[in-house]
Design goal:
The protein is globular and about 35 Å long. It has a single domain, classed as FAS1 domain (Roll), CATH 2.30.180.10. Strand 4 and strand 5 form a beta hairpin. The chain contains 7 helices and 7 strands; from the N terminus they run H-H-H-H-E-H-H-H-E-E-E-E-E-E.
Length: 152
């Protein structure tokens, strides 16, 4: 694992995430409670749990809190738009850190671009990966400090 936020993750959360499938794993980490609720709202938890292998760029609670409250409320009240935003954070397959830099097609249909190397990566030149390479039973999670919005 790499990133400045890894050391501050709740004790035991990494072991718990490693034992669960990707959709459910966010419930094991209190820094991902907003994401877990959003996945449930968009009916994506089982989609991620049933995926063969998946990589998720997971916005932490603080990333959702950066959105204006009215925008966040509107997003959470619109399951179709919420699904679009959340699948924009998700890529098929397990992307290892050494393969992270590059352009990746998302489940939403558009592409995201990851730049950087070592332990210093950004997604779409905005979201910083603050803790990366967290393993789940069927995927890998990279915690990001911003919610990525798909281009319209």
């Amino acid at each position: 694992m790499f990133g400045p936020a890894c050391a501050s993750l709740p004790e035991g959360s990494l072991d718990a995430m490693a034992q669960q499938r990707t959709g459910s794993a966010s419930a094991a980490n209190s820094r991902l409670s907003t994401l877990f609720n959003a996945l449930n709202q968009a009916k994506l938890t089982s989609v991620l749990d049933n995926a063969e292998a998946v990589t998720v760029f997971a916005p932490v609670n603080e990333a959702f809190a950066q959105l204006p409250q009215a925008d966040l409320n509107r997003l959470l009240a619109d399951p179709a738009q919420l699904k679009k935003v959340l699948t924009y954070h998700t890529v098929n397959g397990r992307i290892a850190p050494e393969k992270l830099a590059g352009t990746h097609p998302t489940l939403e249909g558009q592409k995201i671009t990851v730049t950087g190397s070592g332990g210093d990566f950004k997604v779409n030149n905005s979201a910083v990966i603050i803790c990366g390479n967290i393993q789940t039973r069927n995927g890998v999670v990279y915690l990001v400090d911003r919610v990525l919005m798909p281009p319209s």
